[in-house]
Amino acid sequence: MASIDIEAKSTTNGHANGHAATAESLIYSEADILTTDLDALQRQFADEILPAYGHGTADVMLLADLATARSFVPAGTGSYRDFSYIAPEIPEYHEAQCTGCMTCVTACPDTAILGVALTEATLDSELAKIPSEAERVRLRAQFAHTKKYWDVFEKKGEEPALFGIFVDPTKCKGCAECVEVCDELDYHALTMISKQQDTLPAYQTAFTFFSGLETPETYINEKALADMMLRRETLGYVGGAGSCSGCGEATALRMFLGATIFQYGKENVGIVNATGCSTVYASTYPYNPWDVPWTNSLFENAPADAMGVRQRWNQMGWNDKRLWVIGGDGAMLDIGFQSLSRALASGLDIKYLVLDTQVYSNTGGQASTGSYTSQNTKLSQHGKAHGGKHEKRKEITLLAMMHPDVYVAQTTASHINHFYRCIMEANSYDGPAVISIYTTCQPEHQVADNMAGHQAKLAVDSRAFPLLVHDPRRGESIAERLDLKGNPAVDQDWYTIKKTGETIDFLTFARSEGRFSKHFGRDGTPSEELLRAQADRLSFWHRLQELAGVR
Ligand SMILES: Cc1ncc(C[n+]2csc(CCOP(=O)(O)OP(=O)(O)O)c2C)c(N)n1
Ligand code: SF4
Ligand code: SF4
Ligand code: SF4
Predict the structure, then answer these.
(1) Which of 2, 40, 207, 262 sees the fewest Cβ atoms within 10 Å?
(2) Which fold has domain 89-230?
């Protein structure tokens, strides 16, 4: 029988499997590994592993043990991670300006800003449990009278609710994305402040108070999709992931899971994740942000892995459980395309989420076939001979549509309703579905930490990444199935802002990101290569217009 030889890092600890921890090296048989007592491992995580990592003593205290051998990490351990030391700033909430729109809660990549709506009576009875008068007053001031939860309910003759926003100081990475989205809506209810000595304890007290509150179902309007995250269960991506501050992928992941849990419940979702940033930041041992079953396959074969899971689940009668594959543009439309194509052709009821950063982000930013023409990447470096990537971009949505009866959508996390609708339609579709999502990657796109949503919106407005939905349930022809709703000026080449007369084209988009900066002369003149990229984006847009019957 095969065995695994793990060098013990310490000789002092007890061990989950009853092995004496005195040897220099621990030998586990395959049987040991396959018959691991998972309950014991869970307890070991709670009692030893997480506290040791929390205190920074893991390196010297912990054995390289069976949990490590099995790559075992229990669900949702990210909630124990403390990031409070990494950012000098944190958002401050100005309740008087808040409308309760939930956009900040939806946009935060780290599940670090949350909302609650509750009646005055409930709030008062919860506050009454706090002994300090000053504390009660401070917490009471965190709640707003909004039109959405107060005026509207009052008008209907129903009990109105107060609304509050709370920041978890242990999860916040200080990216300021929440401030940006609130400002874009012109509400200005959040600002970044510098952390002072008393900031973190005050935020922690407020967040602990928030954690004991629950929004009653009456105030969760199923039609206002952004409200889904008022239901605690939808926060199945708990934060504590090792993603960069402001990462555009993480927001998309939180939203996809929130919508799926909202529809099907936490017990009915499973994830197969292709290697990429999303697996590395989701399994920086011992922390994992997923509160649902999750497995990491190889980089290029996640759809094949999911085919096995789907068929086993079906044998067990679990046909209704939702199975999602997550992967980057590298894993899904570039090197890993063959596996995806095979799985789509099988017709199996599996959903695929493509996190399109237009580059192999995790390995340092190499070009994929999803990179834009002229893009400066590690495999298409901008130099004297070549101005960035020479080839044209490959479009996963067109390819997926050419497979038999696949639900296909392209969207972004900043188009909240469009995004949620696509996820929910994919979930309810009886067959394969591919959702391609524009995901801002700060280091590789060279944009600021608070710009994920802004850049995603600009990518749509500039035809860099048009929104689309192809739903085979709508009819036979592609024109019947394909919908470009949500894009500005659907029947035009480019979108022109009426107020200012400014035309938003691919050059506008490129000008706003560092990855294209070398294409502009001192006076702002674009290079030949960039103009070729612009022509490619227009040609793709024309193709979509033609297929949708708009052109
Ligand atoms: C079979 C295999 N080949 C290559 C790698 C190395 N590798 C790990 S992550 C990665 C890039 C992932 O890029 P992408 O799929 O675009 O996801 P992103 O990191 O951009 O989210 C590569 C090449 C690997 N882990 N396994
Ligand atoms: S985005 Fe602004 S207005 Fe909307 S809920 Fe958040 S803080 Fe309130
Ligand atoms: S600053 Fe960033 S991490 Fe912190 S709450 Fe806002 S969006 Fe979330
Ligand atoms: S490198 Fe890019 S995709 Fe990866 S975690 Fe950072 S921002 Fe997200």
Answers:
(1) 2
(2) Alpha-Beta Plaits (3.30.70)
